[in-house]
Write a structure and sequence with these properties.
Layout lengths: L2 E4 L18 H19 L1 H12 L7 E2 L1 H9 L3 H20 L5 E5 L2 E9 L2 E5 L8 H14 L3 E5 L10 H10 L3 E3 L3 H10 L9 E3 L4 H12 L4 E2 L7 E6 L5 H12 L6 E6 L2 H17 L3 H11 E5 L3 H11 L3 E5 L3 H5 L7 E4 L5 H5 L26 E9 L1 H17 L3 H13 L2
Parallel strand pairs: 1-12, 5-6, 5-8, 6-7, 8-9, 10-11, 10-13, 11-12, 13-14
Antiparallel strand pairs: 2-7, 3-4, 4-15
């Protein structure tokens, strides 16, 4: 089921040889997304109605879900699910509070310097609901925004054929205090949050995971400079570094568990053990056909699944770093030491008792994570994604006088004399 990629004895860069979704997919997606963005920017809600009818089968016009509808969904939630959501909210809020950057101010040579963090005014969050209603993404996107102090949160999620939003998504939105719920999905939802329409106010930033169309739309609107985004959070990826101490059934279960998201999921086993590869293949042959979403699992594992044989665990870390997986599991002897050498991953799950699914469902860190190799330069969604750091400078007259020679020398070097004049005129007028 997994392709075998034997890199033993080959320490050349591996990134181009590791599987990803088809390289030409983004080009095809990009053109379609551009058309949607242009239409929504020009026609607003009318364009949203056309695309919602075409893609979601709902001929609707009232896109905003009334607040009482969401509250009714929360009131009617099964007790076990409500309890799980409340526990998840508590865990994610705790982690978001711990990771909130601190303001600071300090005096240095007579100058008061520092950084203050100001929350964004309005944030748009995207919650997928196509193949699966990602209730957990409501918590993961909204709770850090609330911890940061964002004034208004707008949530967009795809409707069903009759305009129905999954009740668990509505319930979660009510629980975490979403201000506006909009039943619009796909690239058109991203366009609405970026440009504003009659039903969707323009947002300062758009966050949340999504399919290739949503991810492409986020990147295109960000490139226009009209709105910020969190990170490239596209189709799920998982890589597992494992040695012969790993239980092959556990490794197989984790590959299957992530592959059920989408046929374009990338799933890698990176190991120095050929015996483990054979055992994991045997476990996959049992588990994959038995799971509910067996067709998309098989498509993902056969399409972008690979067992990568390496020389040793140091080589395994090199390969994992070259890939930069969204989720990286380390199931080896002394797993913490191996994981400590990893430099590029959205989130690292250490040891045999740390499956990705506990991260998906709120052990604390956010599950909105970088994909497509972007873990090489960015991390997962954090509280500071909803904050703008503002530098603070306040000088006394003596501090300005002390800084004057520095300003004069550099202004002269850059041929910007008015910069120095802005200091001199103040000093001349000082008592």
């Amino acid at each position: 089921m997994l392709k075998l990629l034997d890199l033993r004895g080959d320490r050349s860069p591996a990134a181009d040889r590791l599987p990803r979704p088809p390289a030409d997919l983004r080009n095809a997606v990009a053109a379609a997304v551009r058309e949607v963005l242009v239409a929504v920017r020009a026609d607003g809600d009318a364009a949203l109605a056309r695309y919602t009818k075409a893609f979601d089968g709902w001929d609707g016009s009232d896109f905003v879900v009334p607040a009482p509808t969401a509250q009714a969904a929360l009131d009617g939630l099964p007790p076990a699910l409500r309890s799980a959501l409340e526990r998840m909210v508590e865990q994610v809020r705790w982690f978001a509070q711990r990771s909130r950057p601190a303001d600071w101010r300090e005096e240095r040579d007579g100058a008061l310097l520092g950084v203050v963090h100001r929350p964004l005014r309005r944030v748009g969050v995207y919650v997928p609901a196509g193949r699966a209603p990602l209730v957990s993404s409501v918590v993961m996107t909204v709770v850090p925004a609330r911890v940061a102090g964002v004034d208004e949160v707008v949530l967009c999620t795809p409707p069903g054929p009759e305009g129905r939003v999954d009740p668990a998504i509505l319930a979660a939105a009510a629980l975490v205090g979403v201000d506006r719920i909009v039943r619009v999905g796909g690239a058109q939802a991203v366009a609405a949050m970026a440009y504003g329409t009659e039903s969707v106010p323009r947002c300062d930033k758009i966050v949340g995971p999504g399919n290739v169309y949503v991810n492409e739309a986020k990147q295109q609107v960000a490139a226009e400079g009209r709105v910020g985004i969190d990170l490239p959070a596209g189709v799920t990826e998982v890589a597992v570094i494992a040695d012969d101490t790993a239980d092959p059934r556990v490794v197989a279960a984790d590959l299957v568990g992530q592959a059920e998201h989408d046929p374009l999921v990338t799933a890698l086993l990176i190991t120095p053990s050929a015996a483990l590869v054979a055992a994991v293949e045997a476990a996959l042959a049992e588990q994959a056909p038995a799971t509910r979403h067996r067709e998309r699992v098989r498509a993902a594992l056969e399409g972008q699944g690979a067992a990568v044989l390496v020389d040793d665990l140091d080589h395994a870390v090199e390969v994992a770093d070259a890939f930069g997986a969204e989720h990286l599991e380390v199931i080896t002897a002394d797993a913490a030491a191996v994981a400590g050498r990893v430099r590029a991953a959205g989130a690292v799950f250490v040891g045999p008792h740390s499956p990705v699914s506990v991260g998906d469902y709120g052990i604390g860190p956010n599950h909105t994570l970088p994909t497509g190799g972007s873990a090489h330069f960015t991390g997962g969604l954090r509280t500071d994604d909803f904050l703008v750091p503002v530098n603070w400078v306040e000088l006394s007259a003596p501090a300005l006088a002390a800084a004057a020679p520095l300003v004069a020398a550099l202004a002269d070097a850059e041929d910007l004399p008015a910069h120095a004049d802005a200091v001199t005129v103040r000093l001349e007028g000082s008592p």
